[in-house]
Design goal:
Layout (H helix, E strand, L loop, with lengths): L1 E5 L2 E3 L20 E3 L1 H16 L4 E7 L4 H11 L3 E5 L9 H15 L4 E5 L10 H9 L3 E11 L2 E8 L2 E8 L2 E5 L11 H9 L3 E3 L40 H14 L4
Parallel strand pairs: 1-4, 1-6, 4-5, 5-11, 6-10, 7-10
Antiparallel strand pairs: 2-3, 7-8, 8-9
Helix pairs in contact: 2-5, 3-4
The protein binds flavin-adenine dinucleotide.
């Protein structure tokens, strides 16, 4: 069985810096980590490998050369192989173009049974890439997976909803996007760290995966970023006091009138 896990290197910060000219994220000089949901996606693939050691787990990312470090960590956790899609031609890709590149990378890897992704990246935050990959590969998808079971080629999952969950069944191959409730990601092992450091990571260019400027990069990206900014913190709130509901309502009314809101 072959499982591909899409993993993204993200800045380890809530204070995302934005290039004011292009409206894209500035990643240089910011500490980077494996996206949280992707660690859950990798863990679920590794649990399948624990049960069946013949399972092959391949991690795939699109990113700058520094993403290699994250891939080494994935191998240290237990992944067998890693592929890095890295090329200037891929820079500036929005989610549509990113999923074109990742789907092309997945097609080149070939013969996959399962594709795991995180639900959402903590930087881009769109939760679009997993579903777009499934659409482009023409295979089923289930998002927000919080519990996973597999019997032969049949899969049963719990898909999280705001107020409960759905039980959904599908068959392989399919794309599943994972959330943190699914599992607890394992730590890297010492042996794994040595394996990761020595691993030969495949680096594929846009040409290697057969995509061009009509499919990837800034020009191919239909999303235009008009303005990106960190919202200013809101001012201190006002707490209205009162011993009874009637008194509270009266004091609130007085406060609103004083400020000429009503
Ligand atoms: C006009 C425009 C230009 C942009 N230019 C750049 C740029 O130059 N460089 C840049 O890094 N970003 C750029 N971005 C941001 C980029 O589009 C998103 O980071 C990327 O498409 C993923 O979207 P997301 O972060 O919302 O991922 P989500 O959809 O929230 O991610 C869901 C899951 O998909 C998988 N996934 C997402 N991205 C990747 C990836 N790269 N590799 C492997 N798996 C992945 C992961 O499993 C992840 O958990 C640009 C965005 C726009 C709109």
């Amino acid at each position: 069985m072959k499982i591909i896990v899409c993993v993204k290197q993200v800045p380890n910060t809530n204070e995302i810096k934005i290039n004011p000219e292009t409206g894209t994220l500035i990643r240089d000089g910011v500490e980077s980590i494996l996206n949280h949901d992707d660690a859950n996606a990798l863990e679920e693939a590794l649990k399948i490998k624990d049960r069946d050691p013949k399972t092959e787990v391949i991690v795939l990312t699109m990113g700058p050369p520094q993403a290699r470090e994250m891939l080494e960590e994935c191998i240290a956790m237990g992944a067998d192989e890693a592929v890095l899609l890295s090329d200037r031609a891929l820079g500036g890709s929005d989610t549509w173009a990113t999923s074109n590149a990742l789907a092309a990378g997945i097609r080149k890897i070939g013969n996959y049974d399962l594709i795991f992704a995180g639900r959402q990246a903590i930087d881009g935050d769109t939760a679009q890439v997993g579903p777009q990959i499934a659409e482009k590969l023409g295979i089923p998808q289930i998002t927000y997976v919080r519990e996973f079971q597999m019997e032969g080629k049949r899969i049963t999952v719990q898909r999280a909803l705001e107020d409960g969950y759905q039980v959904l069944k599908t068959t392989m191959p399919c794309v599943l996007t994972c959330i943190k409730e699914l599992n607890t990601p394992r730590y890297m092992s010492i042996r794994g760290i040595l394996k990761g450091a020595a691993a030969e990571i495949k680096v594929w260019s846009a040409e290697d995966i057969g995509v061009n400027e009509e499919l990837v990069g800034l020009k191919a990206s239909p999303t235009n970023v008009y303005r990106s900014f960190t919202p200013k913190p809101k001012g201190k709130g006002v707490s209205v006091k009162g011993d009874t509901a009637k008194e509270l309502a009266g004091n609130l009314l007085a406060e609103l009138k004083e400020k000429h809101i009503i």
